[in-house]
Amino acid sequence: NDTNSYKSTITTVEEEYGAIGGDNFNTYIDMNSHMMHNPRNTDITKLVRNCNKRNLANDRHNCVLLTTGSFNPIHPLHLQNLLNAKKFLECEHQPPWNVLAGYISPTHDSYVHGKLGDSAWIPARDRCQLCDGAIEEQGSDVSSWVSVSRGESEWSDGFVDFGPVTENLRDFLNDALVDQQKILRYPLCVVYICGLDHFNKCSY
């Protein structure tokens, strides 16, 4: 069967409550409205290049990695987590998965500023630039496949938790690469990467 559905069902507040909720934050996205991610804030150039270079357009086991967080500022362990996950998925997991790209997604200012206050908060635009610089500093082992997605930090409705962010990125990528451009034959998966402290707080 060549068909493989990836679209989300409508997500309710009760179904997609975040680990950090409250009246000040939106922890869900109405998938029937507009997309958080788009070609302007989430570049797919590296993903497509790696797919073509490795001849993986018809493979069923393609994925991208996503990590979210304040990145206030980013540090080497954030990038090492992505490298470790890529190595595991491609070399140890059975069946192996092809990691075509990785995305660093800095969290919206409304959350970071509220958590850290004026003295420690770095605005999203600067946090994104620091992430870009850190990626380039690591050389081609990282810069050949990792990019910064600004979709989450630029989202007009404020903070959204990691679950809906992951789903929205998945839907954007598959809409672009499978449905529209026909670059991939099968939908790719988005694998969420986080540290142990975040993992221990996850409710799903």
Automatic annotation (TrEMBL):
InterPro entries: Euk_NMN_adenylyltrnsfrase, Rossmann-like_a/b/a_fold. One of its GO terms (molecular function) is nicotinamide-nucleotide adenylyltransferase activity. GO terms for biological process: NAD+ biosynthetic process. SUPFAM superfamilies: Nucleotidylyl transferase (SSF52374). Transmembrane segments: none annotated. This is Cytidyltransferase-like domain-containing protein. It comes from Rotaria magnacalcarata.
